[in-house]
Amino acid sequence: MGDDTYFEPTVTVGWRERLAGGPGTTTAHFDGGDDFTLDAEQPFTGGAVARVGLRGGSAQVLYALDAGGTFDDDYTNYDVRASVRFQF
């Protein structure tokens, strides 16, 4: 698009995996009360990651739009991000 503006499409595909460790438990009590234990939610263990985006700009403005998700058998997460930066 010449020297003044540019466009940059992006595609990212990958795999994210938790290799070790896990959530712990919390044991607590209220003043004068009995102890109780809170078990942590099982977090994401691993799955595919896919993202698409468009970035571009010129000498005075930069912008980006990015969307994607993480996909596992028991967990799915989507997100969209947009940003604009003005330079003076």
Account of the protein in words:
The chain is an all-beta fold. The protein has one domain. 0% of the residues lie in helices and 61% in strands. The protein has no helices and six strands. Strands 1-4-5-6 form a four-stranded antiparallel beta sheet, with no helix packed on it. Strands 2-3 form a two-stranded antiparallel sheet. The protein is elongated, with a radius of gyration of 22 Å. The chain starts with 5 loop residues before the first strand and ends with a strand.
List the helices and strands and how they pair.
Layout: E1 6-17, E2 25-28, E3 36-39, E4 46-57, E5 61-71, E6 76-86
Antiparallel strand pairs: 1-4, 2-3, 4-5, 5-6
User: Helix and strand succession?
Assistant: EEEEEE
* Strand elements, count: 6
The major pleated sheet works out as: 4 strands, antiparallel
Global outline: elongated
Give the helix level as a range of percent.
under 10%
On the 0 to 100 scale, the average pLDDT is 87
Q: Kindly report the spatial arrangement of strands forming the biggest sheet.
A: 1-4-5-6
- What is the total domain count? 1
Distance between the termini: 22 Å
H/I helix tally = 0
Q: How much beta, percentage-wise?
A: over 45%
Low-confidence stretches: none
Which structural class fits the helix and strand makeup? mainly beta
Q: Taking Cα atoms only, what radius of gyration do you get, to the nearest Å?
A: 22 Å
Summarize the structure.
The chain has 88 residues and is mainly beta.
